[in-house]
Amino acid sequence: MTETTASLTPAKPAAPPKPRKPIESGVPDPLQYMHPIMRKNYGNWAWHERPRPGVLRHVAKSGDEIFTVRAGTQRQMDVYTIRKLCDIADKHGEGHVRFTTRSNIEFMVAAFDKVPALIKALTEEGFPVGGTGNSVSMISHTQGWLHCDIPGTDASGVVKSLMDMLHKEFIQEDMPTRVRITTSCCQINCGGQGDISINVQYTKPPKIDHDRVGNVCERPSVVARCPVAAIRPAMVNGKPSLEVDEKKCVCCGACYPPCPPMQINSAESTKLAIWVGGKHSNARSKPTFHKLVVANLPNNPPRWPEVEDIVRKILYAYKEDAKHWERMGEWIDRIGWPRFFEKTGLAFTKHHLDTWVGARHTMNMSAHVRF
Amino acid sequence: MTETTASLTPAKPAAPPKPRKPIESGVPDPLQYMHPIMRKNYGNWAWHERPRPGVLRHVAKSGDEIFTVRAGTQRQMDVYTIRKLCDIADKHGEGHVRFTTRSNIEFMVAAFDKVPALIKALTEEGFPVGGTGNSVSMISHTQGWLHCDIPGTDASGVVKSLMDMLHKEFIQEDMPTRVRITTSCCQINCGGQGDISINVQYTKPPKIDHDRVGNVCERPSVVARCPVAAIRPAMVNGKPSLEVDEKKCVCCGACYPPCPPMQINSAESTKLAIWVGGKHSNARSKPTFHKLVVANLPNNPPRWPEVEDIVRKILYAYKEDAKHWERMGEWIDRIGWPRFFEKTGLAFTKHHLDTWVGARHTMNMSAHVRF
Amino acid sequence: MADKSKTEDAGKDGGKEGGCGSGCGCASANKHATPRLDQLEGGPWPSFVTGLKRLRDSDDKQYAPMMNDLLGQLEHSYTERLGFWKGGTVSVFGYGGGIIPRFSEVADKFPASKEFHTLRVMPPPGFHYNTEVLRNICDIWERHGSGLIALHGQSGDIMLQGTTTAGCQKAFDELNEIGFDLGGAGPALRTSMSCVGHARCEMSNYDEARALRTILNDNVGEIHRPALPYKFKFKFSGCPNDCVNAIHRADFAVIGTWRDDMKVDQQEVKAYVAKQGRKYTIDHVIAMCPTRALSLNDDDTLDVDNKSCVRCMHCINVMHKALAPGDDKGASILIGGKRSLKVGDLMGTMIVPFMKLETDADYAKLKAFARQVIDFFADNALEHERVGETLDRIGLPAFLDALGIEPDPNMVKHPRTSSYVRTDDFTEEAEKYFARRGLRKDGGAKDAAE
Amino acid sequence: MADKSKTEDAGKDGGKEGGCGSGCGCASANKHATPRLDQLEGGPWPSFVTGLKRLRDSDDKQYAPMMNDLLGQLEHSYTERLGFWKGGTVSVFGYGGGIIPRFSEVADKFPASKEFHTLRVMPPPGFHYNTEVLRNICDIWERHGSGLIALHGQSGDIMLQGTTTAGCQKAFDELNEIGFDLGGAGPALRTSMSCVGHARCEMSNYDEARALRTILNDNVGEIHRPALPYKFKFKFSGCPNDCVNAIHRADFAVIGTWRDDMKVDQQEVKAYVAKQGRKYTIDHVIAMCPTRALSLNDDDTLDVDNKSCVRCMHCINVMHKALAPGDDKGASILIGGKRSLKVGDLMGTMIVPFMKLETDADYAKLKAFARQVIDFFADNALEHERVGETLDRIGLPAFLDALGIEPDPNMVKHPRTSSYVRTDDFTEEAEKYFARRGLRKDGGAKDAAE
Ligand code: SRM
Ligand code: SRM
Ligand code: SRM
Ligand code: SRM
Ligand code: SF4
Ligand code: SF4
Ligand code: SF4
Ligand code: SF4
Ligand code: SF4
Ligand code: SF4
Ligand code: SF4
Ligand code: SF4
């Protein structure tokens, strides 16, 4: 079996032998931490409902029930915050919690009567209860200036600013269906696809620090990273360096991680772009990638007001017009892109026309048209 | 104005002066030949219905009506056939006819009472009346051995064989919706897209007649025609010729028209393939290209029984299972390709997996799956 | 398994099927035996073979010997499973194209048909004829050709099939006198087609024949003297049903559409539901709308969300007594349709979402835009490159730029999903858009032909 | 216009918004002033800044100075609008990966946080914890790290953010003793995620946590000692709702599905229609089914065409009391999902339409197949190439061939539309297919893991 006994009995921390050989225990068994009712009814659930925003009631085939209270966190938490959440779980919950794909925390309890106190405690401590059903859940985000080595902006700050604005939509279930927003602090986009995505978009070719290239970069592999073959090895004032064909360069930044001297970021040229209609679920329509709607927004900490402004416009146009169960992209597929740009008051430009490999597949090769 | 007076008054044929300067009259005006009721109500029609297969009743906003009787022809007609159709039009019709996109002939009359006699005369003379509404209309076809310089088979013969089989489906309206079949006598495919398409498919790289290449072919432009850059100039036994990299060659035949010595055809290797789901109309789904279902069928004149056999299987699987208004491709989109291959008893092979540019766009990149 | 094995040995059966039902003089000495072709005379569908034999057997006619050898060569092809024609160059005085020359590679065996050229003659749009003009064409072709005529070629030509070089000139001169002209061949503007449309169809949104003649007759030089990088085809359909396959088979497709709301007769809707039943109506109309723009009310009337409707025609096709296109009519223009050579098949790309087609001025605008696209093609396409390939090669932004057309969301399925693009001038481009919106009412479409 | 101009000068306002509501000792001498970050303390959402300050202000803790300088560097980034970390190499004894090393480029200004490495620690699948284990983790990280923990990273790791090289080893040793292990980084097998699924969801079609641990714990070496061409990620969702985004964010996505008919409780269907109304039900359920597999009967019961159903989940999501997945459960496997580097974004491609997941033997088969794919990747991918790029580069037929998987129509949207392929062995390939069908019952899927 794949179980590793080592993972089952937490041992009292001992002074680590040096050097200590690691126990390659791999992924721990979740059953040991799981709420007993979930363990008992594991794989045997019948249906669920949402008594109120932020609360789920799952009923098992055995008739057992479990109530879940979901609350938002900042994801990047200090130990005090985590301990506070543990205190709440011990005092008002049943000592078992889980985190969601979107860094929300969930408290599981056996009976509904514990729910109100839980909600009260969480709210008092500043943890918004919600993120369920047709709400705007927590924005999935990435590292940014806080930790990454290649960031164009700070994800945590963007997310904090936006979630302050979206707080109301998190604690109520007032959207056409669940809304997934993501951010990413560079064009690599660790945050992935979203109904709305706020991502860094570079707008200039990399500025090369020729003095450092020779020592820092493995030139052939950097050349190989460029998706449009815009990089060639070159001698610059006597030193081996790299050159970029700026006509070809699509400002993607792929050369930067393997070669930091190819500075893609600058306070001015690093901008933010907003994308919509990304979807992973297979419900109704197939999963789709998000599409560009606005580029060139200023990277304006600490609260990125221009980004907030656009996100608000898009979200509320969607909220007003979409039918139940329509995700952002499905709403647009129904009403059409012309109307999307009308309703949001955004501009459609040549940059929205795909120029990447296979662009032909994104063209309207039909007489389907909207007025 | 764009009218060219020259085209309006047919002049008595005179002994042509030599050399005679052409009158570049361009496209003649159709109004001069059009049935008076059509001319009178030009652009003002209200609705139509089909009193019976092969007959259309169009009602104008003025209240005028016109009845159309549609009949099949062999497209490649001798003057006697055309004169016979004229005789029928003069005797039972009103002297005005038109041909359809699919080489059917239409007789227009002002009143329904003329219809039965028209139908009788046409039927007696061997012109099947039908091709309207939910029927299998005439197969659109091409030149083949009769006239083309690069054919792999004979379109007229394939069409005659198939229409003999489909005669019943032409004269009745028994299909889920209108069915469009096409054939083409080489891979260039002048016949275009169809619900079912029967096209030549080469299966071997061209055999090069090196002695002739030098004189006949403009080598650089031949090299340029190859979609996969498999052709390179070469000296073969002292003569300038061309070489084909058979690993790369996709047997498309594009090098053959500009360079006949690159013999792509042979009695054995020239095969037929059958494709389904092509569609030009924008009704419901966007226009789509037909997809490969069977390849490597023998090129077996004069009646291509193996082709007939497959076409029958596909057509009747569709007829049995499709909903009203579903074109072949839409039927398959609903039931899925797995079921299409089951119902038709055809094989799904590696050759059905796209390997052309942008193949990625034809993959199932979703969890949508059928069992 | 069964079918496969059948496929294997069906080859043999092939020969046995059909059989010659014509009792024609196959055997007779001076005529080629055609045992294989004879098998294409049986069966209910009109037989082209029987027709060819009729010509062969018109002993008094000049073309009889030619058609005997033509049948001989065709039988030879059916036996060898190979074609035996080669091209060449033949034209009429003053023109460079319009003829498809055919010289036999087996002229030694079949001398009378060693030349078998085809005249491509442009038909009246919509293929309308009266019997008089058809008879005239037959007479001319009986005098100077083989007597074999195809109505029509896939590009729409009247194809007069089979004559000598001399015959080409004679036949053309007489046809030209009665108002017909040669169509396109080679790297030239090609013969065009339009649907029956205005002449007999309630779905029609513009005068297809007028549009066709306006454009083609403005460019006859490009038809008759091949000087383009490659072929260029126009096709005209009155509505998105596209009865002439314009979207795939034309470099420049004009497809009728309307801008305002469709017309709904709720009484006829109820009548339809009453006749067909609710379940049938839901499954075949409501659920088949590609954009869920239809909703059936509980009282069996229909809600149409015209803003979401993509003018696909389906509901109108089904309920054509209850529903009809609106009044603000015109056409969409799609560019770049073609078959698969080199890059793979292409459907036309939506370039002009809407061009009003009503007044003389509207048609003049269409004419000017067509000319502009032909000029772009002549100047920018590589040798043997279709305009769709040019578009694909340079990309839509560059293409629009060259034509001075503003980007419009109707041109795409969706905006780009790839972030690999340099957007430092995004804000300026956005300003242009807002300026346009401020100035113009009907979006990208209007601009197109300006 | 309005919005644009706003965008233009909003930059200024930006600064004014928010403001520091924390009354923290920003000003005090030994602590860096953080005027910009302070503005991220206001507002209803929990503030990471407030959390960072709490750590900074824990004067008795070893990490207080480090967090003061960390805040200083972060404020510096907010001012300069640039990042100031660089990578390097740090690992724990016996492992090559699992740590993301960070060295400050402005260590002169902020010496205490000159090292700020992150430990990626693999969580229990489904992110289940009890308060005891969470407190243990906090205690360990308080002793040896910054006290900053992210729950969780986008790949699912517990991210212990910020410690020295020495701290990495100490923290790991203690975590390892209580049953935790490092996750992946660099060109290695990465930490995995699975949805809550079996633990609390009625939609679940297999034991996600078991599948995850079966595969990952069979390949710990690939996690700890980076030796692959590039990263490789597994993700596990119990149904096509895909609550962990597996299809795009995993090289190997296991997505639950079922093969038999869905379960329908017609009484609950009627109850739903009664509650929501017919029109609402038609528009939101019937018309939203992607394959028109649903039909509402006149008596308000539901017809489901299970053969046409693509298991999209929509109707089940909407009517989850009336409808449910069937009993013959398992998963589809999609390969090649990734973000956009080099070739553009890729969703996973359907490679195994169905793999039954019930018995020990089933999970063993899954394990073997996962290993086979990892081996293929190790042997065939180019340097820094994701498996999706390899698939895209060599083509699906070659990919299937290498894995010994038979082609299945479920793998494609549709068969090829291009005729540019050499098919002379089509008949043999067809024979193989018929032979397979003769022998096997459940198509390509079964083969996959064999
Ligand atoms: C808890 C969580 C799984 C986990 O292991 O953590 C989860 C839990 C449920 N999801 Fe989910 N989903 C969770 C992330 C996701 C994600 C991934 C993400 O958000 O990054 C997706 C894919 C989103 C996308 O397409 O990009 C996702 C797509 C869905 C869908 C499909 C929605 C759609 O129509 O496209 C459903 C079905 C539905 O909405 O009824 C669903 C349904 C559900 C249900 C109702 C399943 C059930 O019967 O219990 C669960 C309660 C949801 C609720 O909030 O009402 N869940 N769900 C995740 C909560 C994230 C959060 O805190 O907000
Ligand atoms: C006569 C003709 C136009 C012409 O100028 O010659 C024509 C005439 C009509 N077409 Fe068509 N179509 C004609 C070729 C086409 C073609 C092109 C082709 O067949 O090569 C198409 C596109 C096929 C494709 O998608 O590849 C075509 C797609 C349609 C459609 C859309 C069908 C669909 O659902 O996809 C309709 C709408 C309908 O079926 O009600 C339509 C509807 C009609 C209507 C009902 C329009 C009207 O109200 O009069 C006409 C009578 C049709 C009938 O037979 O009942 N016509 N129609 C053509 C007859 C061809 C023939 O002899 O069979
Ligand atoms: C005669 C005709 C088939 C028929 O029997 O109806 C035909 C016959 C030929 N076509 Fe075609 N094409 C004919 C309509 C088409 C169509 C359909 C259409 O126009 O709607 C197409 C598909 C649409 C398109 O234009 O792509 C078509 C796509 C081609 C192609 C491929 C072009 C491409 O870019 O993929 C070629 C090859 C080439 O142009 O090099 C071609 C080339 C040819 C040539 C000239 C072969 C050659 O290169 O020598 C054939 C001359 C045969 C002959 O002896 O007459 N023909 N050809 C059609 C023209 C008759 C007419 O003028 O009315
Ligand atoms: C930490 C994390 C973001 C976060 O804050 O949550 C992250 C952070 C980084 N990612 Fe990521 N990625 C993280 C999840 C993802 C995901 C999402 C996922 O795994 O579901 C993706 C998209 C899915 C995918 O794998 O494509 C992702 C796609 C990338 C890529 C682009 C890969 C591609 O083929 O397009 C890179 C660049 C690379 O690999 O060269 C990358 C590279 C990086 C690097 C290592 C930047 C670098 O090259 O130095 C970042 C280290 C930041 C740091 O200081 O910790 N990261 N990265 C996530 C991992 C945390 C964890 O272990 O739990
Ligand atoms: S998105 Fe870019 S900057 Fe942000 S964490 Fe990922 S790699 Fe780093
Ligand atoms: S930014 Fe991207 S496109 Fe430009 S040089 Fe670097 S890798 Fe190439
Ligand atoms: S399909 Fe090929 S062989 Fe047939 S007419 Fe067209 S070009 Fe000639
Ligand atoms: S057949 Fe096609 S692929 Fe092969 S050499 Fe000729 S042009 Fe190239
Ligand atoms: S294309 Fe439209 S307008 Fe033209 S004939 Fe067909 S249905 Fe009528
Ligand atoms: S025309 Fe087509 S898109 Fe428009 S409402 Fe009717 S069916 Fe829907
Ligand atoms: S993916 Fe499916 S099974 Fe897993 S949590 Fe989401 S809905 Fe439930
Ligand atoms: S699960 Fe999806 S595809 Fe299947 S019937 Fe329900 S809605 Fe249709």
Number of strands of chain C: 16
Structure classification of chain C: alpha+beta
Main beta sheet strand tally, sense and closure of chain A:
5 strands, antiparallel
On the 0 to 100 scale, the average pLDDT of chain C is 92
Treating each run of at least 4 consecutive H or I residues as one helix, how many helices of chain A?
9
Biggest sheet, spatial arrangement of strands of chain C? 8-9-10-15-16
Q: Hey, which two chains have the biggest interface?
A: B-C, 135 and 144 residues
Strand content of chain A: 15-25%
Residue share in helices of chain A?
Answer: 10-25%
Task: Give a written overview of the molecule.
The complex is a heterotetramer, with two copies of chain A (371 residues) and two copies of chain C (450 residues). With 371 residues, chain A is of the alpha+beta class. Chain A contains nine helices and 14 strands. In chain A, a hairpin with a 2-residue loop joins strand 10 and strand 11. The N and C termini of chain A lie far apart (62 Å). Helices cover 25% and strands 20% of the residues of chain A. Chain C has 450 residues and is α+β, with helices and mostly antiparallel strands. A five-stranded mixed beta sheet of chain C has the order 8-9-10-15-16. In chain C, helix 5 (131-144) packs antiparallel against helix 6 (165-177) and helix 10 crosses helix 11. The longest helix of chain C has 21 residues, at 360-380. The N and C termini of chain C lie far apart (62 Å). Residues 1-27 and 439-450 of chain C have low confidence and may be disordered. Chains in contact: A-B, A-C, A-D, B-C, B-D, C-D. At the B-C interface, strand 1, strand 4, helix 2, strand 5 and helix 4 of B face helix 1, helix 3, helix 4, strand 1 and strand 5 of C. Bound molecules: siroheme (4 copies) and iron/sulfur cluster (SF4) (8 copies).
